[in-house]
Design a protein that fits this description.
single chain, 502 residues, mainly beta, six-stranded mixed β-sheet, four-stranded antiparallel β-sheet, 1 helix, 52% strand
């Protein structure tokens, strides 16, 4: 008896479910025909279009469909061989019965897949490291409506370059001596066909050697003891590298956003921890000591001063605006207030320069266009100099050579020479906004620049003439630059350290 009751309950529930979702019914479709290539928007009228699960043309599902109401559906016809089919609507209640009202006619032959006529080409034929290579589609019959690219690097065999799937490609240092090819897939409703270009000449060097690190968003870089390079990463790390490019060790400095780094008179490396308001010290063997600043100071750049102490810029925020800081090798900190604190001073980069003093670039955020270059003696005496107005402002790196100061006006794309008497001469930096700057081993100026994905290192003479521009990988956003123990230039760029022989 209990079993019979269960059967009756199941029957009743089934009837209820059928009643909840009536069978769909198609009364009219418009238009009633379209090309075999598909893509036609077809409106389906009827009833019971509730909880629709699929719409098909014969046995082929619609490309997409939208249920406008319980009596109307708009569907996109798929590619299909020519002939008459029934449109079928399925819901949770069942599927529509077939009738002449749901007929749809596909007309014409299916499109044919593209056929390659001329191969894709790559220009220039002689690729150079980090310079753009562009691929053409080649020519095709049967009207392709889309193209897909895949770049290949080839030595004895060809391998795909991971992620290189656009019409342009910038070959990096690791592809030197290899040739490039590009495979292009042409598509239409009839199918997909692939053609591969002829190989280019071997990728040539532009003078830049790149070494990958395990860190990202590299910022500062400095020479250290034992002919090593040290670098910082804004993601919270420090790295140690040989001049042969081998990463010896990486250290984590959590939540600190380390920025600049410099060797001290004690032969330790000193670095700024922008995110933690601290100055860090790391020994050549990797022991880290941190020295706290007042909250909100945000230390940025750091350099060894002529007095053997480390001098740094404090950018500050809110009620704790910028200052200049000094820390002894024993960790004793002294801070110096800047003029016009009500105008929100933000010191940027600092260098040791003429007159046994420190020189730094300074922005006043509350009074746009009043940026300054300041000198501070080791006794803490300040002198301000007003450079030519650059609107908008944003000063960057600063260095000293030939008895003069040189600094960067980022937004105005200029390098500026300044005498110790405060006489300024501006030079065009180009091609992209310059950022950090240092003096090379031969007395020339070297600076990093990046804008809109383009990344460069530029060499400029003290006469203001650009002699060489070196392209770096796109979007590497090079930051710090220094002279290495081997007298090459070294740059922190993205997740790589790049080196250039002057």
């Amino acid at each position: 008896m209990a079993g019979l009751l269960l059967v009756l309950v199941a029957l009743v529930c089934g009837v209820a479910a059928q009643a909840a979702f009536a069978l769909p019914s198609i009364e009219e479709v418009t238009p009633v025909e379209g090309p075999a290539a598909g893509g036609t928007e077809v409106t389906i009228y009827g009833s019971g279009f509730t909880a629709v699960t699929s719409v098909s043309f014969g046995t082929t599902n619609a490309i997409k469909y939208t249920v406008e109401s319980s009596v109307e559906i708009v569907a996109e016809a798929p590619t299909h061989a020519d002939g008459v089919v029934d449109i079928v609507v399925k819901t949770s209640g069942g599927e529509s019965s077939k009738s002449s009202a749901d007929h749809y006619t596909f007309t014409g032959a299916l499109p044919k897949a593209p056929v390659n006529v001329t191969l894709p080409t790559i220009t220039p034929e002689k690729p150079v490291e980090n310079a753009v290579e562009s691929a053409s589609t080649g020519t095709w019959t049967n009207l392709p409506n889309a193209y897909k690219y895949q770049w290949l690097h080839c030595l004895k065999t060809c391998e795909e370059v991971k992620g290189a799937t656009s019409s342009t490609f910038y070959p990096s240092y690791k592809y030197l001596g290899e040739t490039l090819e590009v495979a292009v897939k042409a598509e239409n409703a009839g199918g997909v066909t692939q053609a591969t270009s002829l190989p280019t000449k071997a990728v040539a060097s532009n003078g830049v050697v790149e070494y990958h690190t395990g860190l990202s968003r590299l910022k500062g870089i400095a020479s250290g003891p034992e002919e090593h390079l040290w670098f910082t990463a804004a993601t919270g790390g420090l790295g140690l590298m040989t001049t042969a490019g081998g990463v010896l060790k990486e250290y984590t400095v959590s939540e600190s956003f380390p920025e600049a780094i410099a060797e001290g008179s004690d032969h330790n490396l000193w670095f700024t921890e922008w995110g933690k308001s601290k100055i860090g010290k790391i020994t050549p063997t990797g022991t880290i000591t941190e020295y706290a600043l007042p909250a909100g100071r945000e230390p940025y750049d750091i350099v060894k001063g002529p007095d053997g102490n480390m001098w740094f810029t404090e950018q500050g925020q809110g009620t704790s605006w910028g200052k200049i800081g000094k820390i002894t090798t024993a960790g004793v900190i002294t801070e110096y207030a800047l003029p016009e604190e009500a105008s929100w001073p933000v010191p940027v980069d600092i260098t040791s320069g003429p007159e046994e003093s420190l020189w730094f670039t300074l922005e006043y955020l509350k009074t746009t266009g009043t940026d300054k270059v300041d000198k501070i003696t080791t006794a803490g005496k300040l002198t301000e100099y007003a450079p030519p107005k650059c609107t908008p402002g944003e000063l960057g790196g600063i260095t000293a050579t030939g008895g003069n100061l040189w600094f960067i006006e980022v937004a105005c794309d200029k390098v500026v020479k300044m005498t110790t008497a405060g006489v300024f001469t501006e030079y065009k930096a180009g091609p992209d906004y310059p950022r950090d700057m240092t003096t090379g081993p031969e007395g020339n100026l070297w600076y990093t620049s990046w804008w809109d994905g383009n990344s460069h290192v530029t060499k400029m003479s003290t006469a203001g003439a650009i002699s060489t521009e070196y392209a770096l990988p796109p979007n590497s956003d090079p930051a710090g630059i220094t002279v290495g123990p081997n007298k090459n230039m070294w740059v922190a760029a993205g997740s790589e350290v790049a080196t250039i022989e002057p």
